[in-house]
């Protein structure tokens, strides 16, 4: 039997993710950071293991709130540093790595997942 929820497609498209990235670039540019999403991030944002689908508003919210609370602090971290952006309300975790591309610091989102009690040794920036 096919369930209605299986027919409803709520995936984030590559076009939508590119728009989110451009929006976040404008916010994070104030501290010299460029936001990037990997192909794996794109695959994982639409993964069924998230239970409830992750939407663009949730992605914008976590990045915006982390910027407000920790933006300056994150911009001072050294290249190669790995951190996790965590939204306590939605249980979304975004592991990122900071990489220098020759002209600016890139915050590269490696993956994303909705998971309570996300365990990692990497420093978490929670909002």
Order of helices and strands: HHEHHEEEEE
Q: Structural class of the secondary structure composition?
A: alpha/beta
For the secondary structure, the number of strands is 6
**Which segments are poorly predicted (pLDDT under 50) over 5 or more consecutive residues?**
1-9
Strand content bin: 15-25%
- What is the rounded distance between the termini? 40 Å
Percent of residues in helices comes to 25-40%
Shape: globular
**Main beta sheet: strand number and arrangement?**
6 strands, mixed
Count of helical stretches = 4
Summed up:
By secondary structure, the protein is α/β, with parallel strands linked by helices.
Helices and strands in order:
Layout lengths: L3 H4 L6 H15 L4 E5 L1 H7 L10 H20 L6 E6 L4 E9 L4 E5 L3 E2 L8 E4 L1
Parallel strand pairs: 1-4, 2-6
Antiparallel strand pairs: 2-3, 3-4, 3-5
Helix pairs in contact: 2-4
Keywords:
six-stranded mixed β-sheet, 4 helices, 36% helix, 6 strands, alpha/beta, 24% strand, globular, 127 residues, disordered N terminus
Description:
There is one protein chain. The relative contact order is 0.19. Strands 1, 2, 3, 4, 5 and 6 form a six-stranded mixed beta sheet that branches. This protein has 127 residues and is α/β, with parallel strands linked by helices. The N terminus is likely disordered.
């Amino acid at each position: 039997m096919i369930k209605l929820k299986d027919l409803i497609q709520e995936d984030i498209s590559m076009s939508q993710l590119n728009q989110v990235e451009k929006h976040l670039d404008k916010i994070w540019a104030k501290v010299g950071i460029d936001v990037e999403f990997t192909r794996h991030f794109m695959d994982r944002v639409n993964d069924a293991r998230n239970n409830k689908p992750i939407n663009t508003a949730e992605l914008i919210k976590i990045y915006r709130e982390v910027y407000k609370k920790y933006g300056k602090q994150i911009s001072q971290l050294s290249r190669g540093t790995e951190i996790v952006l965590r939204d306590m309300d939605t249980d979304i975790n975004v592991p990122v790595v900071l990489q220098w591309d020759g002209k600016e610091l890139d915050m590269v989102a490696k993956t994303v997942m909705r998971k309570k009690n996300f365990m990692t040794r990497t420093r978490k920036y929670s909002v």
